[in-house]
Amino acid sequence: MRKPSKPTIPAMLGLEKCPSGIRGLDAVTGGGLPRGRPTLVCGSSGSGKTLFGLEFLVRGIQEHNEPGVFMCFEEREKELAQNVASLGFNLPHLITDKKLVIDQVAIERADIAETGEYSLDGLFIRLSAAIAAVGAKRVVLDTIEALFGALGNQTILRAELRRLFEWLKDQGVTAIVTGERGDGTLTRQGLEEYVSDCVILLDQRVTEQVATRRLRIVKYRGSAHGTNEYPFLIDATGFIVLPITDISLNYTVSTKLVSTGIPKLDAMFTGGGYYRGGTLVVSGASGTGKTSIAAQFIDAACRRDARCIFFAFEESPDQIMRNMRSIGLDLSRWVSSGLLRFTASRPATFGLESHLSTMLKAVEDFKPHIVVIDPISAFAAAGTTFDIKAMLMRVIDLFKSRGITTMCTSLTRAGEDDESANGVSSLMDSWILLRNVEVGGERTRTLFIIKSRGRKHSNQVRELVITDQGVDLVDVFVAPDGSILVGSARASQEQMDKVTALSMQRDMRRKKAHLLRHRKAVEAQIAQLQAELAAEAEDVGQEIDEDEANALGRTIVRETLASERESAGRPAVAAKTNGGKR
Amino acid sequence: MMAIVKARAKPTSAPAKPAAEWELRLYVAGQSPRSLAAFANLKAICEAHVSGRYRIEVVDLLKTPQLSREDQIVAVPTVVRTLPPPMKKVIGDLSNTERTLVGLQLRPAANRPKE
Question: Looking at chain A, which residue has its C-alpha nearest residue B42?
Fold first, then answer.
């Protein structure tokens, strides 16, 4: 998190602040420590005071070009350098560069006998020389309480300390003074009397075998400051303070959509898919298919060349990849092509803040488009519900502000589906529930969408199948009575439907055949009647012909007779052809 | 203890005197009443107990501030017995003679100091 932290608390005019360079602290203090004044950092041993001081100096040199002086009363210069070398602070280098002076004050009670009045001018002179040597603007005294053990005269000592802090103010250096926590007082020797401009308390406590470090600003004169306890971490690069107030609900959102990897599930969301940059939780009891859905989501994303990180908190990456191979998803090729990164650890190994920091770092490093956290319910082993929710809030807020689409899986106990998935459902934009139902003597996987902010979604319960080609949804099957059937009930209903369809078809065929026959019969009848009619017509025709012929014959005879009767005086008429048959 | 010291305020080796058995170094920060008193007290104590066999060096830390770090001086005035070994250190204006003697173990005879 190397971006300069923007102060979220406005600094009041008049008090200049010195950016500490410690990640997260400047946000909490509204800009840093009070410039030109001493700050008291107290805590029990091992709480990180020395490191705090050293990081303050080192960052001051590296980032703000302000040289510093570290006056140590307890450790040796070489030990200090060794201790912080692993954080990447190269103290010897800074010393040779004349940016840093480490002055170790060796003071042993046994060596010193007090013979009268004295002052601590020697200390002043040393400090003055050191500041002058590098032009220091930052000073750390760690831990000046050691003087109390060495010098017996408390009156002188306290007076001199008061003088020292006034002197430091006069020098215009921003100083950090460390003190060991006392019982009931902030510091054992009451340094808070003298150093009261700003007091920071470092705390380390162990709850349920997990140690967490917390930082609290007890007092900050002249400035508003965050008053809560903030968890912090000391990791491989130094201090990180993780304030929750760093989260502002201010981020731009996208209207673009991202496919879920399961086409039919995409179809359940109007428009198809999740919002880019949104958060989604897939919850369900054991064995309902959450990790498979997550893996398919990633597979689809990698096919689109999107970068993904898979945070696994229960299974090892190899195991996940092996299991997914059995349903036809090959995640290992995305890993080798660099599009997918797995990060796995057991939640109980570290405190929640460590996990937060690991996730943040991985995201900073890899800059993914998609993140899967599987499962978030595993964090119950590392903290209380409240803590988990706070941490997840930070994680999700960070991802959202970077436009990363996040999918979390959550294990719920069977029968507790509607419990709001570890209390985090309010952080999520979409929530898909997986449930195995027992119907007709078998368990079928079902899926439905409980909520999807900003999108219309289907309210149907769909049957989920995990096949050799991945996860898929079965088409909705509506029974004749309007209910939706799944599993073997559906299969049997489908079968029955087929049978009914077949028999209906047969009925139809039979009826058709019957009609055909009937038609044929009727046609045959018609043919017969027509034949009879034709025969009758023919007979009648013949009779008519005969009648006509007879009539014609009779006419001819009559005419012949008539002509023959008159023919005694007439020439013979040519005999007409007989018959006149026409 | 440290190696041979560099140029100081006033080296006081008188010729033809035997090498001083006791070497004491007084660290002061400028000429304050306290440092003057310390010097006077030291002188008096030395005269009283190891007369003739001592040498006092005065180191003004305002002039040579790096010595405060090198010699690990925190309080002022500080008197360091460099010779004879072992090195002994006392702080204060030496107004308490008894403590000074005990602290610097200035008794020439082998007096076991009550520590």
Answer: A115
